[in-house]
Amino acid sequence: MPATTRFDAMQLPDGNQARMDFLESSFYKGHDSGRCLPSPVEVRASSGRNRPTPQPPPVKFEHLDLIVKYGPHVTVAEAQCLWMIKRVLREQVPVPEVYGWRVDGQDVFIYMEFLRGTTLKDRWDFLSVGDRTTLCNHLHQIMESLRHVEQDPKDPFIGSISRHHLLDIVFEGQPQGGPFATIKEFNDWFSGLPWLRFPNLESFQDSWRASLPDTGTIKFTHGDLHQANILISSTGTPRVLAVVDWAHGGWYPDYWEYCKAAYTSAYDGEWRNKWVPLFLNPMSEVHEIFAEYINAMGAI
C-alpha cells in the first residue's frame, strides 16, 4: 500500500509570477548556463498559426526534448500540479517534468518534458486482453498513490491546487466556486448550479440532492482520466509513461474522479464497465446523480 504523503498548498511555487523557471529541472541541469526556454513569441511563431485560437495545439521542440502547452484557457495551476506531483510522488505517479511557465497577455505557456509515446486511446484497439489488464493494474497503482496524498487535516478545502476556485470544465460558464471548507458546502453549491436560471429559486425542491454524499474524504483528483490523457509506450510491451493534461486537477470529494471518468466514456461501453473499475473504485449510484446534474447544467 502506498505511504501517505502530506501536502501543503503553501509549498507551491508562486502562481502570481508571470515568469517561472525551475532551474533544478533536467532542462537546465547538465547543460550550459546560457540555456533558456523559448520565448512566447518563439512558441507562437513555431506553432505555424497566424491568428490566435482558443485552444492551440501544443508546440514541440524535439531537439530540446520540450513541449509547450499554451493558450488563453491554460492555467498556471496546471503547471503547479505537475510540479507538486513530481516533487511529492516522483515516479509513483508518472507525469511530464515541468520546466517553467510564462504568462504573456491572455496566454499561459507551460514548458514541460516531451515524452515520446502514444495515447492509450490510439493503441487500445491493438492491445491484447493481457496487455490491457497490465496497463489498468499499473493505473490502479498510480491512482492509489495519488489518493494517498493528504491535506492538513486541520485545514481541509475543496478547490484548485493553489486553494483558488475550481477549474473543472463542467463549471465553464458557471459562477466561479470554491474553495469550500467541506464536502457538504461543495455539494450544496454544485447541486444548485443547474437551477440558477430559474425564478423563485428559494422555493425549488431538488429531488437529487439527498443522493450526493456529504460524508467521505477530500482527494487530490486528476478530473479528466480518459484514454486520451494516458500516455503509453508506442512499441513493444505497453507501459504507462505518464498521465497528462492536469488542467482540471484539484482537491475534490472522493467520488469526483470516478464520476468524471465514467461521464467521459460510453454508458454501455467496455471501457467504463470492464476496465475503469480495475483502477478506480466504482461509485455507480453517485455517478447517476452526478450525470443528472451535469446534463441539467448543459455541460459537455
From TrEMBL:
It comes from the Eukaryota. Residues 85-272 form the Aminoglycoside phosphotransferase domain. Gene3D superfamilies: 3.90.1200.10. PANTHER family: AMINOGLYCOSIDE PHOSPHOTRANSFERASE DOMAIN-CONTAINING PROTEIN (PTHR21310:SF54), AMINOGLYCOSIDE PHOSPHOTRANSFERASE-RELATED-RELATED (PTHR21310). This is Aminoglycoside phosphotransferase domain-containing protein. It comes from Lachnellula hyalina. The lineage of its organism: Eukaryota, Fungi, Dikarya, Ascomycota, Pezizomycotina.
